[in-house]
Design brief:
115 residues, mainly alpha, two-stranded antiparallel sheet, 4 helices, 2 strands, elongated
Length: 115
């Protein structure tokens, strides 16, 4: 496995080791979902956590499925550790990767079309 970035230590937690070339990074999404549920105004905190975890799991599954199709530069840009307060999210990463992929395709299509 080749690493494009070294493991990232934020505070006292090892958040992610970005092994971008070979596989989707694994993070403890429960921490992100608990933090998000504590600031949202849903029906209950546990319901919000459950919905969040389900969404994050689906996003990770999609990333795993499509990982080899994403450009390396997009993986680096989209799947990165942020500042100390940042909590990683597969939904956020997937949204970024899909957006970058779509933008790349639009630019490619536009460069082929006559002016």
């Amino acid at each position: 496995m080749s690493f494009l970035f070294a493991p990232i230590l934020l505070g006292s937690q090892l958040v992610i080791a970005i092994a971008l070339a070979d596989s989707v990074p694994t993070v403890n999404i429960h921490n992100t979902c608990r933090a998000a549920a504590s600031v949202t105004s849903g029906t209950s905190i546990q319901t919000d956590i459950d919905i969040c975890v389900s969404s994050e799991q689906k996003a990770r599954e999609q990333m795993v499925k499509d990982w080899s199709q994403y450009a390396g530069v997009d993986k680096i840009r989209c799947v990165q550790a942020g500042p100390k307060v940042y909590l990683p999210s597969y939904v956020e990463w997937l949204t970024c990767l899909e957006g970058e992929s779509t933008l790349r395709q639009i630019r490619k299509d536009n460069s082929k079309s006559p002016d």
